[in-house]
Amino acid sequence: MKPNYRRCVSCKKLAPKEDFLRIVRLKKSSTIRLDRGEGRSAYICPEIECLQIARKKNKLGRSLKTYVSPEIYQELWQRLKKSSSKNTKDDD
Ligand SMILES: [Zn+2]
């Protein structure tokens, strides 16, 4: 794996870590944070599909080995909405 490349927990796509949303389980605790923090991290594409898969199959919870509350998923949804409103054109 190239340095700074990460894998999405849902679709397993490899991409530079900046392309992903980062979910962190803080060291020596089961507190979950987004973006920042030191500890075990999981990465997910800023895509609705990936978030749906992650929620349905508990991908984040499994990857981080702790319970990921619905609030965390809510927060991720909010991020998606914000970033997709910035870029309304569907020119992938
Ligand atoms: Zn993905």
If you consult CATH, what is the topology?
Hypothetical Cytosolic Protein, Chain: A
Query: What is the straight-line distance between the termini?
Result: 25 Å
Total count of helical runs of at least 4 residues:
3
Main pleated-sheet profile: 3 strands, antiparallel
Mean pLDDT over the full residue set: 90
Unreliable stretches: none
Q: What is the percentage of strand-forming residues? A: 15-25%
Shape assignment? globular
Q: Give helix % range.
A: 25-40%
What is the helix/strand order?
EEEEEHHH
Main traits of this protein?
92 residues; two-stranded antiparallel sheet; binds zinc ion; alpha+beta; 3-stranded antiparallel beta sheet
How would you describe the overall organization of this protein?
The protein is α+β, with helices and mostly antiparallel strands and 92 residues long. The chain has helices at 48-56, 59-64, 70-86; strands at residues 5-7, 14-16, 21-26, 32-34, 39-44. It has a three-stranded antiparallel beta sheet with strand order 4-3-5. It has a two-stranded antiparallel ribbon with strand order 1-2. Strand 3 and strand 4 form a beta hairpin. The structure holds zinc ion (ZN). Zinc ion binds next to loops.
What's this model, at a glance?
By secondary structure, this protein is α+β, with helices and mostly antiparallel strands. The chain is built from 3 helices and 5 strands, in the order βββββααα.
Topology:
Layout: E1 5-7, E2 14-16, E3 21-26, E4 32-34, E5 39-44, H1 48-56, H2 59-64, H3 70-86
Antiparallel strand pairs: 1-2, 3-4, 3-5
This protein binds zinc ion (ZN).
The site of zinc ion has 8 residues, from loops.
